[in-house]
TrEMBL record:
It comes from Streptosporangium algeriense. Residues 21-79 form the RNA polymerase sigma-70 region domain. Gene3D superfamilies: 1.10.1740.10. Keywords: DNA-binding, Sigma factor, Transcription, Transcription regulation. This is RNA polymerase sigma factor. It holds the Pfam family Sigma70_r2. It comes from the Bacteria. The keyword Nucleotide-binding does not apply. Signal peptide: none annotated.
Amino acid sequence: MSDQQTIDAALAGDQTAWDALVTRFSGRLWSVARAHGLSAADAADVVQGTWLRLVESLHTIRDPERIGSWLLTTARREASLLSRRW
């Protein structure tokens, strides 16, 4: 399934499509969070926050083929914001 098809299915409420996105990108999101020197708990917050941002923004994604870049950029921003709080 292409990224476009996966996103369209996720928007339609297809749990399998969401699961596919999570499976495909979660490891990379964790890597980004941990690369910022965050604890496991804080990294989990970053990953969860990133997925939440996707849920909130999925309907506005203009280039579904770049969803991976969008997720990684969002994770970097989330990690940066969290690390600045300390």
